Amino acid sequence: MNAVEIKNLSKNFGPKQAVCGLDMTVPMGSIYGFIGENGSGKSTTEKMICGLIPTSGGSIKLYGKDYTDIDVRASLGVLIESPGCFPGLTVFDNMMLQAANLSIPNAEQEVVKVLKMVRMEGAAGNKYKNCSLGMKQRVGIAMALLGNPTLLVLDEPLNGLDADGMRIMREVFTDIIKDGKRSIIVSSHLLGELQKVATHYGIIRHGKMICEMTADELDASCRTYIALQTGDMNRTKMLLGCKYSRVEEDEAGYIRVYDLTTPEDVVTYLYENGITVTEIMTDKIGLEEYYIDLMKGGK
Amino acid sequence: MTRELKFKNPSFAERIKGMLGVDFYRLFHTPMFYIFLAIAAIIPAMVSAMTMMPDQNGNTMEPLYSNVWQIIAASEPLYVINTIADYANMNMVFIFGGIMVSIFIGHDYKSGYVKQLFTTHAKKQDYMISKSLTCAFAMACMCITYLIGGTVGGLLVGYETTVNVGSLIIAILSKMIMSLGWASLYTFLNIIFRRYFGISIASSFFFGTGVLIIGVAAIVENLGVPTWFLNIFLYGSSVNACLISNVGTLIICTVVSVAWAVFYNVLGTRILSKSDVY
User: Fold this and answer.
1) What would the pLDDT profile of A220-264 be if each residue is shown by its tens digit?
2) Is A289 helix (H, G, I), strand (E, B) or coil?
3) What topology does CATH give the domain A222-296?
4) Do domains A2-220 and A222-296 have the same CATH topology?
5) Cα(first)–Cα(last) distance of chain A, in Å?
6) Within an 8 Å CB–CB cutoff, is residue B133 touching chain A?
């Protein structure tokens, strides 16, 4: 059984078609990285999954049941845009209110548990309005975790988090899915971070799913490259550009030669042309570059 | 290994209990509620006191009221008002109440609370019911502070206190019961204009003043048609709860208030079900 199964989903806002014929499958026990540029229909799709906006067509099934089914809806945890906290109340009070809404027994224990999960137990007494952006984001995730949901829908949950916050979130996400019953849909523009946790990916463009794959499939699809540095970078770039189809200089100052697995040819070629390689390594492009390639139609 | 998932199905009672708990908690833990209670108490006291203040020439105004209890309810059901005294009574609570409901519901949308709520198990109908009941309670409390403020103000000014106690109690109770209908109307208006906070407040204020019914009443009176049918409206019934009220008035107010509450709740639920949550 899949956690989410979407067939031919569409949503129109007047004449504008935000989502058109979208198919999406989120397996149980997965962290589904939902990727797309701004205005591609990610948030609209997530809102439809959450029942916040009615669909214009197609079907959404959550754990094999229609998404409007109240039983299955009760098992959703969500963070979309804002966590739904009242600024004048403390973090703890806001969490308790959500626990009351969800009719959670032993609410206090549950609230303390999820606050500990996101390392916010020390800030429970702070008024929500006094929390930093990162803290607010953690509270939002804690709010979504209340009631032990089977499906979490998180829209940009990593925004505003510092390095430690991101690490904590990765641990939390991994911990959630380890029993194989729960799933997480995460949309984020921080693709490097997403790649560290996602087990599946869905890439959306202009309201259509253009690609769905597992992390392993992504890994297999990612181009390999050789990155090198020499004493004469400009001449190296020119020489390599004459021989290989794709040569680029990256932000770190390395020259990258794509689609090569053995560095010997490059080293020999440069040596024959009087250039000594000072540093060389082989690597693969990450999700971010894969995505940029895909958007450019380069892949 | 088969992976089984069990989903809980919260009952209506569980859902509504949770939502009411949250709404009442919010009501009692935000300053807004107490500010509006204070406003409801201060306004009638101020209206009474103003009549005693001398102008630049040292002349005092002619008193607006002749009796303390006219601050609470009109002497008779006056659908068409002639003086400010005919209008300025406990019905003003429904104007301030409308603004309070707009702020209360506006925060739900502004904070994203409704997204959390509607994603999980809360049905749209639960939301309408919970808001209507909570806001009705808040307005009923405002009626009580208005009563206290108006009575103290009237007594300090030295108005007469003669009244049919039974009618007075029925009038007060009727107006408190009318809070449910008014709260449902304001909840409904705020659902319609949920994306436009300013329009929500303006529409609540507009309906709260009862100008529509006053306008209809003026036309009806000119045509010589009986005005009793105006009692089927919220403002009409609120005006009907006056110092000559009897048990019949209380029954009419209860029926009208509940009927409009049901109407607005059903309509609001339908609109919410078919519209996007922002």
Assistant:
1) 777 788 889 998 898 999 898 888 888 888 888 899 888 766 788
2) helix
3) Alpha-Beta Plaits (3.30.70)
4) no
5) 31
6) no
Distance from CA of A68 to the nearest CA of B (A): 10
pLDDT, residue A8, reads 94
Q: Show me where the domains of chain A are located.
A: 2-220, 222-296
Q: Is the pLDDT of residue B1 over 50?
A: no
**For B219-245, how does the pLDDT look when each residue is reduced to its tens digit (9 = 90+)?**
888 888 888 888 999 999 999 999 999
Q: Cβ B112–A80 below 8 Å, yes or no? A: yes
Closest chain A residue by Cα to residue B30: A88
Q: Specify the CATH class of A2-220 in words.
A: alpha beta
Residues in chain B with CB shorter than 8 Å from the CB of A153 are 119
Identify the band that residue A37 occupies on the pLDDT scale cut at 50, 70 and 90. Answer: confident
User: Mean pLDDT throughout A168-196?
Assistant: 88
Q: Do B112 and A81 touch (CB under 8 A)?
A: yes
Please tell me which of the candidates B3, B275, B276 has its beta carbon nearest to residue A180.
B3
Work out the minimum CA distance from A70 to partner chain B, whole angstroms: 6
Confirm if A249 and A266 have CB atoms less than 8 A apart: no
Our CA-based measurement puts residue A16 at a distance from the nearest CA of chain B, in whole angstroms, of 15
ipTM of the complex: 0.76
* Cβ–Cβ pairs < 8 A, chains A and B: 113
**Which spans in chain A are helix H?**
42-49, 70-73, 91-101, 107-117, 133-145, 163-177, 191-197, 215-221, 233-243, 264-272, 287-296
Closest partner CB to A101 (pick from B9, B19, B277): B19
Say how far apart CA B247 and CA B241 lie, in whole Å: 10
Average pLDDT for residues B65-81, to the nearest whole number?
Answer: 87
Q: How far apart are CA A185 and CA A202, in angstroms?
A: 10
